[in-house]
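Q: What structure does this chain adopt?
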Amino acid sequence: MSELDHIVRVLKSGGTILYPTDTIWGIGCDATNAGAVDRVLNLKVPNVDQPLIVLVDSIQMLHRYVSDVHPRIETLLSYHQRPLTVIYDDCHNLPHNVLDGHGSVAIRVTLDPFCREVIGSLGRPLIANDASDFSMDLPIRFSDIDHQIMNGVDYVVNYKQDQVNDEFPSVIVRLTDKSELDFIRE
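A:
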């Protein structure tokens, strides 16, 4: 069995993974499985109310979870060269525990080929919650991850364990009520 097959089997069974996203190392699960999302949230100590990011593999998949993707956002997603996370207010087909306190969700169309392959094989989006323990910087390399987090997931992905991710955290944007782009983090 290939590693990809094993990862998909773990995710389909409600399991959690430690994996390299298109920005940093993250804790992930099937974003449509509320129980698995709870397991991801409970891995972080202290359990701080931290917003989750949902990764999709395409704009087509994004439309399954966002009621109305504004044309400005679609254009931005099509041409943006860095990882871009967009905060959406009108989402569906995602469990309540994925949404933030305002009912919004942050979704990124991943640019990373490995993440796209996992999401495509699963057929559903992934959660991407940073694999830090709040006392350290964001984990750009596998060796940055606390052993408690490594031991708390069901599977640790082998891909890129020996590499340093040179990506910065994603750009974060929200569309205002006036259909203007509000860059929260550039």
